[in-house]
Design a protein that fits this description.
The protein is α/β, with parallel strands linked by helices. The protein contains 8 helices and 11 strands. The chain has a single domain, classed as Rossmann fold. The strands form 2 sheets. The chain has a 9-stranded mixed β-sheet with strand order 2-1-3-4-11-10-9-6-7, with helices on both faces. A two-stranded antiparallel ribbon has the order 5-8. The longest helix has 12 residues, at 227-238.
Length: 240
């Protein structure tokens, strides 16, 4: 059976592109990592893919605001191509800086602001998939996901989170501890189609049990892997 074709979009300062490449390969995809300027020069790298990821890190050193420069690459540089990709029913996920990029590109609602505590935060968190989520990425996930965060601008803001909830666009919430002051404990949101997902935590950094800091001491476990998000995305893309 042929494998899904995936593209991971990176840029100067991204640092999770190879991590997410590994996660997608484990989930059953063939993966090409492409810099944004390469994508602008050769847009068929996106056009030929069935699934796309905007990788995490600190693109362009967060100049002019986290994700702003890479978002310009993907909108001004690529025009409507990423939107057309989504309109064809192809799944897209933006992780951490990628989430910031997708909100700035207006592919996802809301915005990300500085953490409420005013400092960079790096720790492990627990996520729950929202029961009403429309996201193809969180479909069928009923056990909590354990994965790390690493951000200074991860506080999700939206003027009407109740409307997001009613529309099924709240995909993931922090359990127990909200690390950045996000409204309604929101860790991830989707677009109105359910194809696009953005989240601040890094599920690509918990794809095997021994990555969990408490592995062997009762923490983590196969039921709590972030890998399940990527398996869902690949499974959906395989139907296209």
């Amino acid at each position: 059976m042929s494998r899904v074709s995936a593209v991971v979009i990176a840029g100067p300062g991204t640092n999770r592109d190879l991590d997410v490449k590994t996660a997608l390969e484990m989930a059953g995809a063939d993966v090409r990592v492409v810099l944004a300027d390469e994508l602008i020069e050769t847009p068929r790298f996106l056009d030929d893919a069935q699934l796309a990821v905007v990788a995490g890190g600190f693109s362009y050193a967060d100049s002019l605001g986290a994700g702003r420069m890479l978002a310009l690459d993907l909108t001004v540089g690529l025009g409507d191509r990423l939107r057309q990709f989504v309109d064809k029913g192809r799944p897209v996920i933006g992780i951490c800086n990628g989430f910031q990029v997708l909100t700035r590109a207006r592919l996802l609602p809301g915005a990300l602001g500085h953490n409420a505590q005013g400092t960079f935060d790096c720790r492990w968190v627990v996520l729950d998939a929202a029961t009403k989520s429309n996201s193809v990425w969180t479909k069928g996930i009923d056990a909590p996901i354990h994965c790390p965060i690493a951000h200074g601008e991860g506080r999700y803001v939206h003027p009407d989170p109740a409307s997001l909830d009613a529309a099924g666009q709240i995909a993931l919430r922090y359990r127990s501890t909200n690390p950045n002051g996000s409204v309604d404990d929101i860790a991830g949101v989707s677009d109105s189609t359910g194809m696009v997902l953005g989240l601040m935590p890094h599920p690509e950094n918990h794809i095997i049990p021994r990555q969990h800091p408490h592995h062997g001491r009762g923490g983590g476990g196969i039921d709590h892997l972030g890998l399940r998000l990527f398996e869902n995305g690949v499974a959906h893309a395989k139907k296209l």
